[in-house]
């Protein structure tokens, strides 16, 4: 059965007790889970948040990115070692959060580009780090789902074809893949083709509008997406990922310069929209 989640980055990248009323309200709307950003806050912060999330009856997933000094595809072995260490620290925090999945573009450093197209050696370097990270994630019963981003945020993995190639190179059962409708809207020839490509390893889906606002209020063809997910018999999270300027530091880091929709409008209307598509396409 598919579960519906909401990424609380619409409010904040940080974790504190101020987030708890938001989580409680998401539960009353009907969500099955929340997705939280894994920062370098103390592990105990994540453990407390995980306990609170469990107390509401919700589940947790998580997301993070890597910076240039911890880049899995850097030519320097020392930098790649720091990348693996950073991923392990994120896994520790996700485990404390009781999160079953970690998603995000941690195959390479976010917004760090080279003066060339992605090279085979870079895929191999990323795969080596992901394989080792998968082994560490296995002991925590966590699945890693690296994410393809649009060309303005990364260059290694923009499409589902590239992501599938990387996951297969990583060759670990705890390293799978995910699909994000916002990035696919930029990079893919068709949503159906992209979903069919990634379906053998698809474990997570971000429902995200073209402008990062309320799903269903932009021009992403969600009918094609939900019909394709149904055809591929996808069973997993359908998590809304939308952004705002509520957390200015985070918004500035990802290039969010205006409000797309109010967070609670996104949460309430987005949940109803996904429910309607689940019913329509028998997901």
TrEMBL record:
<dbReference type="InterPro" id="IPR013022">
    <property type="entry name" value="Xyl_isomerase-like_TIM-brl"/>
</dbReference>
<dbReference type="GO" id="GO:0016853">
    <property type="term" value="F:isomerase activity"/>
</dbReference>
<keyword id="KW-0413">Isomerase</keyword>
<dbReference type="InterPro" id="IPR036237">
    <property type="entry name" value="Xyl_isomerase-like_sf"/>
</dbReference>
<protein>
    <submittedName>
        <fullName>Sugar phosphate isomerase/epimerase</fullName>
    </submittedName>
</protein>
<dbReference type="InterPro" id="IPR050312">
    <property type="entry name" value="IolE/XylAMocC-like"/>
</dbReference>
<dbReference type="Pfam" id="PF01261">
    <property type="entry name" value="AP_endonuc_2"/>
</dbReference>
<feature type="domain" description="Xylose isomerase-like TIM barrel">
    <location>
        <begin position="24"/>
        <end position="251"/>
    </location>
</feature>
């Amino acid at each position: 059965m598919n579960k519906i989640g909401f990424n609380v980055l619409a409010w904040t990248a940080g974790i504190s007790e101020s987030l708890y009323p938001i989580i409680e309200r998401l539960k009353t709307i009907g969500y099955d889970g929340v997705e939280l950003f894994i920062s370098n806050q103390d592990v105990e912060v994540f453990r407390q948040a995980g306990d609170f999330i469990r107390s509401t009856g919700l589940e947790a997933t998580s997301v993070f990115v890597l910076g240039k000094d911890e880049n899995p595809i850097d030519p320097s072995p020392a930098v790649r070692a720091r990348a693996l260490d950073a991923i392990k620290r994120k896994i520790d925090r996700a485990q404390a959060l009781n999160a079953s999945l970690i998603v995000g573009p941690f195959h390479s450093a976010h917004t760090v580009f080279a003066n060339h197209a992605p090279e085979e050696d870079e895929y191999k370097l990323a795969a080596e780090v992901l394989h080792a990270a998968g082994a560490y994630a296995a002991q925590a019963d966590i699945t890693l789902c690296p994410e393809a981003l649009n060309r303005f945020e990364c260059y290694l993995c923009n499409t589902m074809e590239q992501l599938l190639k990387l996951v297969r190179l990583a060759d670990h059962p705890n390293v799978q893949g995910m699909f994000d409708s916002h990035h696919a809207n930029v990079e893919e020839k068709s949503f159906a083709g992209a979903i069919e490509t990634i379906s053998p390893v698809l474990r997570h889906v971000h429902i995200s509008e073209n402008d990062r606002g309320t799903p269903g209020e932009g021009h992403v063809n969600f009918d094609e997406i939900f019909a394709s997910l149904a055809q591929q018999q996808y069973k997993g999270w359908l998590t809304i990922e939308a952004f705002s300027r509520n957390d200015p530091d985070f918004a500035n880091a990802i290039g969010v310069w205006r409000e797309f929709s109010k967070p609670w409008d996104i949460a309430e209307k987005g949940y109803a929209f996904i429910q309607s598509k689940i019913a329509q396409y028998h997901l």
